[in-house]
Amino acid sequence: MDPSSRQPLSACIITLNEADRIEACLDSLAFCDEVVVVDSGSSDGTRELAAAKGARVLERAFDGYRTQKDFAVQAARHDWVLAIDADERVTPALGASIEAARDGGFAGAAGYRFARCTHYFGAPLRHGNAYPDRVLRLFDRRRGGWRGEREIHEQLRVDGPVQRLAGDLDHQAYRSLADHMRRMDRYSTMMAAYQHGRGKPASLAAMILSPAWRFLRGYVLRLGFLDGWRGLVFALIEANYVRQKAIKHWLLARDEQP
């Protein structure tokens, strides 16, 4: 296919203090026509490293994950967008699948899903709730984007067919156990506030039953135990996140600060 007639593709990333991970992320996006990085005040050289790799770096105060990611998408020069986080890398297999779809003009699709593989304490998680974790990240912004009101666990939606691509998106999610637990604490606070703001009822049962179900589903029914001790730790922290969210929601419903 004549390169000049190929569908141009933009990659969009939001960042905050990702100096230790941004270069590997950008290296995996060499096949894209441009990379847009929207930074929310990094103090560790993230912006400079991204610019040195050829990214177009914009600065914007952070006011929510969905809003920040939508800003990046709207700032892109091209309508087909690959949305990726700084702790993710496009593997060669996934890159080849994206290029094949691109050679075909992204025909018949408004967006594409692919598996995301989380690496945890130096090894990939291949079971449980962690995998394949198919995410919609490649899409035509004229037909969709980061929609809804929820700023946490934000969702991409498109109007039209969504196809699957082979290959994994590698997710180098957590720098340490402490990092994992800090994030879950922050995310549970945001989700509890969202649920409370939407008027969702809080219940004591959710503190007991929902965490137990999350653990059972991931560790047993989805075979998370096959990932060894990593799978156990991951499943326990996942269940604890659900418990934290339920407790914080219950407290907010009683006008208490979590």
The proportion of strand residues reads 15-25%
Largest sheet: 9 strands, mixed
Q: What is the CATH level 1 assignment of the largest domain?
A: Alpha Beta
Q: What is the general shape?
A: globular
* Uncertain runs: none
The number of helical elements comes to 7
Number of domains: 2
Radius of gyration, in angstroms, nearest whole number: 19 Å
Distance between the termini: 57 Å
Q: How would you state the average pLDDT, rounded?
A: 95
CATH architecture classification of the largest domain: Alpha-Beta Complex
Q: SSE string, helix = H, strand = E?
A: EHEHEHEEHEEEEEEHHH
Q: Give me the CATH fold name of the largest domain.
A: Spore Coat Polysaccharide Biosynthesis Protein SpsA, Chain A
- Class by alpha and beta content: alpha/beta
Helix content: 25-40%
Instruction: Give the name of the CATH superfamily of the largest domain.
Output: Spore Coat Polysaccharide Biosynthesis Protein SpsA, Chain A
Number of strands: 11
Would you write up a description of this structure?
With 258 residues, this protein is an alpha/beta fold. The protein folds into two domains: 3-171, Alpha-Beta Complex (Spore Coat Polysaccharide Biosynthesis Protein SpsA, Chain A), CATH 3.90.550.10; 177-253, no CATH class. It is 39% helix and 23% strand. The strands form two sheets. Strands 1, 2, 3, 4, 5, 6, 7, 8 and 11 form a nine-stranded mixed beta sheet that branches. Strands 9-10 form a two-stranded antiparallel sheet. α5 packs parallel to α7 (228-253) and α6 packs antiparallel against α7. It is globular and about 60 Å long. The mean pLDDT is 95.
